Amino acid sequence: MVAKEFPRAEHRHCARHIFANWHKSFRGDEMKMMFWACAKAYNEADFKDGLDAMREVDPRAADAFLAYNPNLFCRAFIKTTSKNDVIVNNMAETFNAYIISARTKHIIYMLEEIRVALMQRLVKKKTEMEKKCIFVCPRVQEKLEKEKELAAMCTPLPSSDIVYQVMYGTDNLTVNLQTRECTCKKWNLTGIPCAHAIAAIFDKYEKAEDYVDDCYKKETYLRIYGSSITP
Prior knowledge:
single chain; alpha+beta; 3 domains; 4-stranded antiparallel β-sheet; 11 helices
């Protein structure tokens, strides 16, 4: 049904559930860290390094990991168009918890309780955001501030007005401010400038907030919650 109604929608698996099954055979904190290092890697080079490290410790663990099809639950392989790096089903679980009390009722009363809750939620979220004097959403701003701190450890080297080579430790990355891409792939995937990109942005004396994807801006948020559910 989903494939029919939303043919261009990306299909992802929950990394947390995959880990729960995988970890039954490959226990220990070291294996746990290796699993998530691979799953959370933003680019294929880091993913490969993580997988190689896992294979050195236990080749069977690496083979079992690949058997779950990393294309469906690893950040290195998910599409960059959605501007979302979530690889667990927390959003679905959160909504499930939101309607947990309504689910125990008769279907008519259940649907009515969910409708009323969502009707009020739309108004509440919109009203709260209208009161905030911000440019991007608060949680996105928090992530941006953390990246700004890391940007202090980066050295931007301009190649042109829009392209930079950025040195970060032993890594050399390429940042394109026009296409809003970095070879670390974090900016491409999340829509939030990474530390390397911010270093280049600051070199041009510009604001990192101006380079955040439009989907995270207050104006977009208000449009999303601008609709209403009628009584």
